[in-house]
Amino acid sequence: MKADGLINQVFLYPRPWILTGAGISTESGIPDFRSSGGMWEKVDPIENFSTWALHNNPQGFFTHGIPMFEQVLAAKPNIAHEIIGELQAKRFVGPVITQNIDSLHQKGGASWIYEVHGHIRTATCMNCRKETVSMEKLVALVRGGEMPPKCDTCGGILKPDVILFGDSMPNDFQDAIRQIRYHETTDNMIIVIGSSLTVSPINTFPFEFEKLAIINNSATALDNNAEFIITGSAGEIMGQIKAKLVELNGGQELTALPAGFVPGRIAAIITDIWAVYTSKNKNNGDMVSKIMADITLAEKLLKNYPEIDKRPLIEKHIIDYCLTLIEKVKTELLADSPSLKSLNGYLPRTLDDIINSHYEGLIGYMRQYNSLSEIIKELVLQLVGLIGLYNYMGSLGVQAFDYNLTGEILDKLGEVIKRYNFVIDIEKALKDF
Ligand code: NAD
C-alpha cells in the first residue's frame, strides 16, 4: 500500500504536524484555486477578492463572494477531515495548520488548528474593528439589499475574517510559528495534504521540520524537498492510512495513545546517532560505547513498557517496530566493535529533553477544554503517560495507565496548575504529586 512507509515514519516521529490546503476540501465540493477548472479560471483574485476590491468595488466583491461563502458554509467534512480529526484526538497526529477558510477541520473533529488564512465563520467591521457578526447575518444583509453590508455601530464595511490579497497575516499565523519553534519541530515531521505549496509564507513552514511528507494528487512546489510523496486523492490516502492503523490494532477501532508514549523518538535517536557515527566518526571508540549505552537503556525502556499486554495491539506493534530498528543498529555496532563496554550514553539527557518539550507541547491540546476539571483530567492523563516513562527507569513507583482520579489528586493538580500557570516543571510537579 502507498501509505505503509509513511505510517512507519509517523511511529518514529510521533504526532507529526499536518498542513492542509484547498485540495483536502475538493472532495467536500469546494473547488481549489489552481487545478484546472478551479476558481481562479473564472474570477480574477486581485480584481474581486483583495482589500482593494472591498474598498473600491464592494459590489463586485460581494457579488462574487456571497455564492462562494454560501457554498463553503454549507459544505460537510469529507473522510480526510474526519480521519485527521480522529487521529488528532487519539494522539496519532499533532496540530493542524490549514490554509483553508472553510472550518471543515473543526467540523471533522480536529480541535488543535491554526487557520493561517482566517475563516469565514464571522465578519468584522473594517473601521471600528469592534462589531463582529456571523457570516449568516452578513449573507442575509447582502441578500436583503444592503450593499456593502455595514456595521450597526459606526457604518464601516463588514469584512469576512479571512485573509484577502493585500492583507497581513492573522494571529493564528504568528501562533503557529511560535508553537513550531516551541515544539522543537526540527525533530519532527510535517505532512502536507492537498496543497500546491505555491503560496507564501505558508510554504516555508515545511523547512522548520526534519522531515516532509506530501499527499497530493499532482506535483507540488516542494516535491524535491520531500522524503515521502504519496500521489492520490486525500480521501483515498487518508482512508488507507486509517485502515492500516486499524489492521495493526488487530482489527479493533483505535483508542487514544497514552500521552507520554514516545517509543519512536527513542528509536529515532538511536538510528540518528548511528547514522552520524557511520557517516563521520568511524573508529571513534568513545562514541561507540556511548551508543551502546544508549541502546541498552532504550531496549530496557521499550521492553519493560508497563502492562503492554493489556494495552491496544497497536502500541505493542509500535514498540516492536522500534525495537527492530534498535536491534538492527545493535547488530551492526557489535559487528563493528565486538568488545564493547557500556559507558554513559547520550540518551538519558536527550530523553529528559524530550519529556520536557513533549510535555509542554501537549499543553496545546488543552486549548479545546473550557472547564478547569476537564483541563485537570487531561493533565492527569498526560502525567500518567510521563510517569509511565519515568517509571521504566525505576525512579518512581507509580503505576502507569491506571491512575485513580480521586478528589485529592484532582485538588493537588489544581494547586499545581495554579502555581505554575501551566508551564509546569515536570519534576516539581511529580514531587508535589
Ligand atoms: P491550491 O489550489 O494551490 O492547491 C491545491 C492542490 O491540491 C493542487 O495541487 C491540487 O492538485 C491538489 N488537489 C486537489 N484536489 C485534491 C484531492 N482531492 N486530493 C489530493 N490533492 C488534491 O491550494 P492551496 O495550496 O491551499 O493554496 C490556495 C489558497 O486558496 C489558500 O491560500 C487557501 O486559503 C485558498 N483556498 C481555500 C479553499 C478552502 O477553504 N477550501 C478553497 C480554495 C482556495
Topology:
Layout: H1 4-12, E1 17-20, H2 45-49, H3 51-56, H4 58-74, H5 79-89, E2 96-98, H6 104-107, E3 113-115, E4 118-125, E5 132-134, H7 135-143, E6 158-162, H8 171-182, E7 189-193, E8 211-216, E9 228-231, H9 234-248, H10 263-280, H11 285-303, H12 313-336, H13 347-362, H14 372-392, H15 407-420, H16 426-432
Parallel strand pairs: 1-2, 1-7, 2-3, 7-8, 8-9
Antiparallel strand pairs: 4-5, 4-6
The chain binds nicotinamide-adenine-dinucleotide.
Residues 21-23, 25-27, 30, 32-35, 38, 99-102, 117, 194-196, 198-199, 216-218, 220, 233-234 line the site of nicotinamide-adenine-dinucleotide (NAD).
Which structural traits does this protein have?
433 residues, alpha/beta, 6-stranded parallel sheet, 3-stranded antiparallel sheet, disordered C terminus, binds nicotinamide-adenine-dinucleotide
List each distinct ligand once: nicotinamide-adenine-dinucleotide
How many strands, what sense, and barrel or not for the largest sheet? 6 strands, parallel
SS summary, helix count: 16
**Span between termini:** 46 Å
Number of strands: 9
Strand content: 5-15%
Helix share bin:
40-55%
Query: Quick check: average pLDDT?
Result: 78
**Spatial strand arrangement across the major sheet:** 3-2-1-7-8-9
Radius of gyration: 25 Å
Unreliable residue runs: 340-345, 354-368, 386-406, 416-433
Structural class: alpha/beta
Shape: elongated
Q: Helix and strand succession?
A: HEHHHHEHEEEHEHEEEHHHHHHHH
